[in-house]
TrEMBL record:
Pfam families: SLH (PF00395)
InterPro entries: SLH_dom
Protein species of origin: Paenibacillus mucilaginosus 3016
Domain of life assignment: Bacteria
SLH domain location: 111-176
Protein keywords: Signal
Segments passing through the bilayer: none
Full protein name: SLH domain-containing protein
Signal sequence range: 1-28
Length: 841
């Protein structure tokens, strides 16, 4: 099967070869020495503006070539685009990547058209002669007198150069021919073998394009692959493949491989990357997991699987209406260590196959046939609520979520690349009666609006508003976010219909629709129809006594101190409100204090027994006012509690009966980690956008060197593949411990991380590098004496100490050998939770 290159189809890059190669002292007899790469003024891909949109795996390869001085840009911050490579430039690259002896003293060429007097290509004379000496070229004419240094190089010529340079010519002559009219007969074996060994890839149209002139992107990528080609990648005469040395980061040779296709759903037209290298099928990536094992039940990590593949230890193929991406096994983000499908071209059976080609693996192989369904199309739309009621005084945003699904019941967010139809969602807000009372609150709305300010002069009553969004640009998960304008409405309230329809823009056909009814009322008008109930727990922990006995507060009744420093001991007291149609009404932000700030609806609690339960107002992690009840002393008997709360018709009091306060030593009964699988990059410059708008930039290795607590580390490395993260979007918690009284101790996201160390002195949760082998730490070296060290101290701080050090004694993270590790949390009752962390360069 032809391998199609997604990289070439994404973008065509151009590289200029600059500088003079650094040469070791001349040989006493020939003046020749193997060419070495130049490394002066080395840059990385981040220096060049026109490579920023490239996929990360391409940037990684470019970085390696830049670091070795093989390539440089045409300007300080530009590589250049669409320039063809010439034969002089190729000569220098080939000399570098094949480590050919180059005689820099040469001034006369064996080719008539190569001269040092040539201002454009004269620099290449020593390299061209090195190619001829190595028998990589005989020139362009039958007599071998002309080299044509300014001439272009075709793709099939490039394939031949690479195969000859790697000394694989004999194997190319015996390679199975390919059926490709764009490849000349003389080059067929070279092209077939270059494709087979992943030195080059086909064009997007399915052909190799043998007579097509090669661009410098092709030169760069094929040079990289040739430079890193495994010496044992060629087939021996006996038909058994001999394995090369294990690559860095791989401690044992792979012996088994499986394809895990469970839960993989493919449809015609599914794609993984678009033309800019961005994931297109969010939540539905066509990736197929692999399981690769070694001796003694060793299981390779995703990053190790990618290393095995890029080093030639894993081969993959596909048949049917399916095209694998290039590289076949992903190198980053969601595709890491998995088979990546570039495109599903047609419905029906598709087969993927993988193989470990080397002798010690016994040619282990696996294949799996999957059924690709017909192309995904939008088939239905659902709304999260059919009936919603809002108080005019409540500034809390309200949201209706419209979810578009395909014919398979999966969320549909973007049309297939094969689907020529254009789709949109037509949102409509229609006021049926009452005064204008709504405004935007984010979600699908890029621009704010207020219903009291009509945008359409032809609609003086402003009864209807519509918005049309392409289906792939639907805002925050299809959320129609609104909130009241905080202005009173009429006694009958305001009535609305909110609807969303999926439309085929080319045919104007409505494919599916959903709608909801919304009412906005003044609380005073609705109050007589409302039913109120107290919502709170019946059992509370005697936190006042517990904290005062440990001298953490002045007295058991010092509720202000408890509320300020130990809010997790407080249990919320809420009022549940429903109208006469049994619709729940949100009272979270309807009451305001004298300064106009939101206040809690609950105003006071009074226990029938003195000194057992007290309350205090506060705010929760979302900034919403709440009222908390704190246990003071244990109660020998059950008691009742009066709860006073605000309503427009005056304060009201309801009773909660049969409450108790219990005492004891809090001990962790359960512990949880928010995200059990994480990835951390040591070389990435992470950017954290703070709540105040400032941006903190820190390199991964520098952050880790600071010995962060495990909850800091887990929060920091949860970037979901992104190097920039808004602090406001961090998860609510990363580690949470629950004691026997139901109190939850957790690090929070409100611009700080709660120090759990003091609480943990009592909770007695242990944190260790996994010892149960669920997520066993893995190194790239077997010798324990030289393995990197990682541990967690009794303050729950992570200590990572690479074995390699700089001259000044600081750690050299660039030479790490730790691949991955697991963090294990254990409670005194032996309840456990794990987190698996993969380290990347």
């Amino acid at each position: 099967m032809k391998r199609l290159s997604s990289l070439v189809s994404m973008i065509v890059m151009v590289f200029t070869l600059t500088g003079t190669a650094v040469v070791s002292p001349a040989s006493a007899q020939t003046g020749a020495a193997p060419v070495k790469s130049m490394n002066s003024k080395s840059k990385s891909s981040s220096h060049f503006q026109d490579v920023q949109s490239l996929p990360q795996d391409v940037k990684t390869k470019l970085d390696a070539l830049l670091r070795d001085g093989v390539f440089d840009g045409v300007e300080d911050d530009v590589f250049g685009v669409d320039t063809l490579m010439n034969r002089a430039q190729f000569a220098k690259v080939a000399a570098i990547i094949f480590s050919l002896p180059v005689d820099q003293t040469l001034s006369q060429s064996s080719f008539a058209d190569v001269s040092t007097d040539d201002p454009a290509n004269g620099y290449a004379l020593p390299y061209i002669e090195a190619l001829r000496t190595a028998r990589l070229t005989n020139g362009v004419d039958a007599e071998g007198t002309m080299y044509n240094p300014a001439g272009s190089v075709t793709r099939q010529e490039l394939a031949a150069f690479l195969i000859r340079g790697l000394k694989w010519e004999a194997h190319a002559h015996s390679a199975a021919p390919i059926a490709d009219a764009t490849v000349d007969d003389w080059a067929n074996g070279y092209v077939a073998y270059a494709l087979d060994k992943k030195l080059m890839d086909g064009l997007p149209n399915g052909s190799f394009g043998g007579r097509t002139e090669a661009t410098r992107l092709m030169l760069a990528l094929s040079s990289y692959h040739a430079k890193h080609a495994s010496p044992g990648a060629a087939v021996s005469g006996g038909g058994v493949t001999k394995a090369p040395a294990l690559p860095a980061g791989i401690p044992v040779a792979p012996t088994g491989i499986e394809i895990d296709g469970e839960g993989v759903h493919l449809s015609a037209g599914d794609t993984y990357y678009d033309a800019d290298g961005k994931i297109t099928t969010m939540g539905q990536q066509p990736v197929i997991p692999l399981i690769v094992t070694g001796p003694d039940h060793y299981e390779f990590t995703p990053s190790q699987i990618e290393t095995l593949y890029s080093s030639g230890f894993i081969t993959a193929a596909a048949a049917g209406g399916i095209m694998l991406d290039n590289p076949v096994i992903g190198q980053s983000d969601n595709g890491l260590g998995k088979l990546v499908i570039k495109e599903v071209q047609s419905a029906g059976d598709v087969t993927v196959a993988v193989k470990l080609p080397y002798a010690q693996a016994g040619n282990a192989a696996a294949s799996r046939t999957l059924q690709a369904g017909s192309m995904r199309v939008p088939a239905s739309i659902e709304v999260s609520s059919k009936d919603l009621i809002v108080l005019a005084e409540n500034e809390q945003p309200q949201g209706l979520t419209f979810t578009v699904k395909d014919q398979y019941g999966k969320v549909f967010k973007a049309p297939s690349s094969q689907d020529t139809s254009r789709y949109a969602i037509q949102y409509k807000l229609e006021r049926l009666s009452g005064l204008p009372s709504l405004q935007s609150a984010g979600g699908i709305f890029d621009r704010p609006w207020d219903e009291r300010t009509p945008a359409d002069a032809s609609d003086p009553n402003h009864l209807t508003q519509t918005w049309q969004l392409p289906i792939e640009k639907n805002g925050d998960y299809f959320k129609f976010m609104i909130k009241p304008t905080l202005k009173p409405v009429g006694p009958e309230g305001s009535q609305y219909t909110i609807s969303a329809a999926v439309i085929n823009l080319d045919t104007a056909q409505e494919l599916a629709s959903a709608s909801a009814h919304l009412e906005v009322h003044n609380w005073k008008d609705l109050d007589p129809l409302m039913d109120y109930k107290v919502d709170m727990l019946s059992s509370h922990f005697a936190a006042g006594q517990y904290l005062s006995e440990r001298k953490l507060i002045n007295s058991p009744t010092d509720i202000d101190a408890v509320n300020a420093n130990y809010p997790f001991y407080g249990k919320e007291v809420n009022i549940i409100a429903t109208d006469n149609k049994n619709r729940r009404i949100d009272l979270s932000k309807v009451v305001r204090d004298d300064s106009g700030n939101p206040a809690t609806v609950v105003q006071h609690i009074a226990a029938a027994s003195d000194g057992v339960l007290m309350g205090a107002p506060g705010v929760n992690s979302n900034g919403i006012p709440v009222y908390r009840a704190y246990g003071i002393h244990p109660s020998p008997d059950l008691f009742d509690l009066d709860v006073t709360f605000y309503t427009p018709s005056g304060s009201r009091t309801l009773q909660k009966t049969k409450i108790e306060v219990v005492s004891g030593e809090p001990v962790a009964r359960a512990v949880a980690v928010k995200n059990p699988v994480l990835s951390f990059s040591l070389s990435t410059q992470y950017k954290i956008r703070k709540l105040d708008g400032t941006v903190e930039v820190i390199k991964g290795s520098d952050y880790l060197a600071g010995k962060p607590t495990i909850w800091e580390f887990l929060r920091f490395c949860d970037f979901n593949g992104l190097d920039t993260k808004d602090e406001s979007n961090f998860f609510k918690y990363f580690i949470q411990t629950t004691d026997q009284f139901g109190n939850k101790y957790q690090n929070t996201s409100d611009n700080k991380i709660l120090d759990l160390t003091k609480a943990n002195d009592v909770l007695k949760v242990k944190a260790v590098i996994d010892t149960d082998n669920k997520y066993q730490a893995k190194w790239s070296v077997k010798d324990e004496a030289v393995q990197d060290k990682i541990r967690i101290d009794d303050q729950m701080r992570l200590h990572y100490e690479p074995h390699a050090k700089h001259a000044d004694g600081t750690f050299d993270y660039s030479k790490r050998n730790l691949q991955s590790f697991g963090i294990q949390l254990v409670t005194p009752s032996d309840q456990k939770s794990w987190c698996y962390v993969t380290l990347n360069d």
